[in-house]
Task: inverse folding
């Protein structure tokens, strides 16, 4: 009788140890998921484009409002859903009779660029002239900028200036904008 009681206590002790081990493992997995989510939030980029008008001219800037770097994978600039390859092509489509050149137009390279958190870069800009005042209106009304970017962890988003929206995933531009 004493032997059966000893076996029962050993089996109960083993069962309790097994339950405690399973609870500890579940707790560890839960904590690991919390840490993973926290790490993702610490390197989360949030790239957007805004336009500004000043006494010196017009500009469209991309900026990273996120907590981590934004790695630009591709960018598409289109006029009325027709992609353009360069800033001069953009001007020629919007104002075919214009002779504007890089003496007035400004741009910086954004393709394959890494935006630090809080960094802002001018994508398109120009000084004020009679011609560029009309160009600014046309850019605001007819130009769409789509930027595909990702975090250092490989999560991807697409920013669309027409809808001012971010969607998860990637996109392949019809024509990669060469700025």
Result:
């Amino acid at each position: 009788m004493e032997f059966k009681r000893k076996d029962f206590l050993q089996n109960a002790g083993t069962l309790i140890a097994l339950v405690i081990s399973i609870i500890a493992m579940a707790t560890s997995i839960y904590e690991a998921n919390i840490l993973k989510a926290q790490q993702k939030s610490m390197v989360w980029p949030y790239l957007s484009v805004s336009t500004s008008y000043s006494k010196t001219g017009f500009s469209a800037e991309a900026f990273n409002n996120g907590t981590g770097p934004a790695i630009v994978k591709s960018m598409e600039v289109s006029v009325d859903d027709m992609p353009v390859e360069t800033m001069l092509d953009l001007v020629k489509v919007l104002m075919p009779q214009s002779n504007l050149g890089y003496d007035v137009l400004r741009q910086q390279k954004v393709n394959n660029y890494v935006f630090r958190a809080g960094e802002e870069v001018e994508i398109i800009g120009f000084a004020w002239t009679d011609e560029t005042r009309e160009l600014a209106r046309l850019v605001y009304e007819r130009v769409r900028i789509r930027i595909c970017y990702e975090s250092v962890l490989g999560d991807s988003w697409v920013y669309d200036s027409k809808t001012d929206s971010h969607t998860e995933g990637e996109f392949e531009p019809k024509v990669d904008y060469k700025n």
